[in-house]
Design a protein that fits this description.
Dehydroquinate synthase-like, alpha domain; Rossmann fold; about 50% helix; two-stranded antiparallel ribbon; 15 helices; alpha/beta
């Protein structure tokens, strides 16, 4: 990205108790000019059922906004929503849900040029503030698409406390993986004409440090939720400033992409796949993974691949395919000869909890 290129930042990041019940007050504090404009709430059918009271309240606060249950996290669905927004002269899109909802609503807002308010029901990865949406294109094939970041991000700490623990663990995994991603970004800059944006690098490192060195070890505490929320947003902003996902995505993400693309039947969240990938990535990079492993253990994040149905042969094949899933992306894998024996040893150490 050219140093003169402008980048967008959210106008508002509110992390508050019961924030969803006074989202209109939060928005009127930060962006008063949009209050009273026509809005639409995007979520999924089951979430609209679970969080009916909160979603109805948000709809009411934004002029009895229509509540739209999206059918899929796909490019086509985002375009359908964008078409509705443009033709019905809707000015605000409010996305309420996890990564699937937020990516779809974010891309719909990008296409329709609507104001986008992001309201996560879980903190499972850093896509909530990133300038990218991962959407299905044809069948189950998914693509990462560039888009505008949210105008406002509202995190209700009560929602996150009550979210499934696995989703918060996934967000922790995505944050800690920045350790290996930043190593790979530096390596890439050495090998190519791509330069590192120091500010983006510092933001991503701060995101990692704030969670890795956090004194609060209780994931359900408001202090930890506030720290994780900010860390995930900082990761998104680092990508926006860099103009790419490099500050947050290296060889560990290539491993996760290989699972998503070649082993879709493996039931594992993105953040958890990235956390598992970060341990071998650390080893390939010549770094000691002990600190990372101890950290994951403290929070009860399970990095045993076999517990997700990943066999030793699958694990080795995932790392083989990781080299080819993103052509042209330079990482430590370019310097690491494919070694089936080494991968078997790493797998067995991870199964035995190292």
């Amino acid at each position: 990205m050219d140093q003169h290129t402008r980048f967008d930042l959210p106008i508002c990041l509110a992390v508050e108790e019961d924030a969803f019940f006074h989202s209109d007050e939060i928005i009127s504090r930060y962006i008063p000019e949009i209050i009273g404009q026509k809005a639409i709430v995007i979520s999924e059918e089951f979430l609209i059922g679970i969080y009916k009271e909160k979603i109805d309240d948000i709809s009411h606060d934004f002029g009895d906004a229509e509540i739209y249950a999206m059918k899929s996290a796909s490019f086509d669905e985002a375009v359908t929503i964008a078409k509705k927004v443009c033709t019905e002269e809707i000015k605000i899109i409010i996305g309420i849900g996890g990564g699937r909802v937020l990516d779809t609503a974010k891309y719909a807002a990008h296409i329709s040029k609507a104001v986008y308010i992001c309201m996560p029901t879980s903190l499972s990865n850093d896509s909530l503030a990133s300038p990218f949406s991962v959407l299905e294109t044809y069948g189950k094939a998914r693509m990462t698409l560039s888009c505008k970041i949210p105008t406002a991000i509202i995190v209700d700490t009560n929602m996150i406390i009550n979210a499934p623990e696995g989703q918060t663990l996934s967000g922790i995994g995505d944050t800690i993986a920045k350790h290996t991603a930043l190593f790979d970004w530096k390596l890439s800059a050495k090998r190519s004409s791509a330069r590192i944006d120091d500010f983006a690098y510092a933001l991503s490192r701060m995101s990692y440090d704030s969670v890795y060195h956090c004194d609060e070890k209780n994931m359900k505490s408001r202090v930890f939720i506030r720290i994780l929320s900010r860390a995930l947003v900082m990761g998104g902003l680092a990508m926006e400033i860099a103009g790419s996902s490099r500050p947050c995505s290296g060889s560990e993400h290539l491993f996760a992409h290989a699972i998503e693309e070649y082993y879709p039947d493996i039931k594992i969240s993105h953040g958890m796949a990235v956390a598992i990938g970060s341990i071998p990535a650390c080893i390939f990079q010549g770094q000691d993974p002990k600190g990372m492993i101890d950290f994951f253990r403290t929070y009860g994040l399970n990095t045993d691949p076999s517990s997700y149905g990943i066999t030793e042969d699958m694990f080795a094949d995932m790392w083989k395919k990781a080299r080819t899933v993103r052509k042209g992306r330079i990482t430590i894998l370019d310097d690491t000869p494919y070694d089936r024996v080494q991968l078997g040893e790493i797998y067995n150490r991870m199964v035995e909890k190292i």
